[in-house]
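chain below, 152 aa
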Amino acid sequence: MYPGDGSGDFGTRRPLNRPSGSPSADWSQTTAVISVGDVDGDGLGDLWTRNRSTGVLTQYLNDAADPQGPGAPLGRGGNRTTIGSGFNGSTPGVAAVGDADGDGHPDLWATWTSDDHLHFYAGAGYPTAPRGFAAPVDASGGGWTSVIDAIS
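prediction:
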């Protein structure tokens, strides 16, 4: 992680280590790290990750009370939650831009190779933090797989 330094630049790189008990001790299968903003309302940025081989989406909440300080490591104990599955090779692109539908909670966008469309997943399971997503809604007329291929 490269934290902001408060003047518009990035500070010194800080490694993010997965907490003990994580599905993997490293990040080698993580093919998406999504900055989703402040999911739980504590004023700290949180992360979603996607493991492309398993298709699991995991939420890592930042914790200001962590003895090591915010961001070190994210998702310790109960602050790590599986929030989705099925996002493997058939969904090459996953992204979040915050609250897309205006309900105050972060949402997810994903491309599907099966129909070449962009799909919208509204965050569900609030009020404290997302625990999953509503059924996907087709948000495009196609052509998204080639967009993902071009930027990958």
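Residues 30-151 form one domain. The longest strand covers residues 30-37.
thats it, cya
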